Every structure is written in structure tokens, then in C-alpha cells.
Amino acid sequence: MKICLTGGIACGKSLLSSFLNGLGVETLDADDVVHELVPEDERRRLAKVVFRDPAARKALEARLHPLVRKRFADWLERRDSKGADAAPSAGPEVPPLRVAVIPLLFEVHWERDYDIILCITSSRERQIERMVETRGYTLEEAEARLAAQMDVSEKAARSHYVIRNDGSSEQLKEGATRLVAWLKEQVTR
Q: Is a pLDDT exceeding 50 seen at residue 84?
């Protein structure tokens, strides 16, 4: 099964991904793929432009999105890293879980590429608070980034499984454990 995690900016996708990794789930984040494709100094320069200029953002997306989509397709198609010689296990075989982390999944219309869509949400106030406190954005910059994305409530409504992240990191970790159990049920059906 092809599984994707989406959500709004500063909702906790990275923290949830780290918890999933700790539970044996492999993740690949679109932001990391973009970082592989675009040098850091150019990303900073582009960020100043694309969140203020929709035409510049569209041009950049037209250039990057096909490359990012191909990277995910290749990654999701790759075989289990254990290889064909892996020892058989007792009980039902649970395939390795891989989760693509794509913040703009619905905006770029890639949802049909995935069998299961997960969404992590937060209140708008928490998103802004996190962007200002942990990323150093001004209120204006935080608002511009939120305006550039689909509202997280719309993403949640279009997803199969939703995790609300307005609480503590410990609560999110517990949510990750429940999510992995749910995913294992889904892939063994």
C-alpha cells in the first residue's frame, strides 16, 4: 500500500515522522527531497520571492514537482531493504511500512497516487505560534505561508486518518503508536 502523510505548515509532520521512524516506519519527506534538489542559499532566496509572488511560486513548482513526484514513485516501488533472503517470520507477514510526507499533496493533486492518506492538524493559532517561536518567522511571514496552502481542515476532511496535534509531544507520540497499529491492520487486510 502506498501511504502519504500531509498536513499544514507547523502542524508537526516532522515530529510525527521521527516518532514513526522510531516505531520502524520508513519516511521520506518532500522537504528533504527539495533540499536535495535545490541548494540552501537558493532556497532562502526563493522563499523570499515565492511566498509573495504567486506567479514565481507556480514557475518554481512547475520545475520541481515532476522531479519530486518521480523521487517518491521510485522510493515507494523499491523492495524491502531486507531483500529476498529475509528469514520468514511467525504469524502474518506485515510488509514494511513506508510513508511519503507531502505537505502540499492536495494542492499538487497527487492524492490519487496513494492508497491511504494521513493528515496531521493543528489550530491556526498553534501553527502561527510554532512558526514564530521555533522558526523565527514574523507574523506576516507566518500568515503568508498559511495563505499559500490549503486550509488544514480541508486536508483533514479529504484524508483517511487524522491526528490532531495541539497537545504535548508525548500525546503525539502516543498518537503515532495508535497510527502504526492502525496502518498494520490496513496493510494486512
A: no
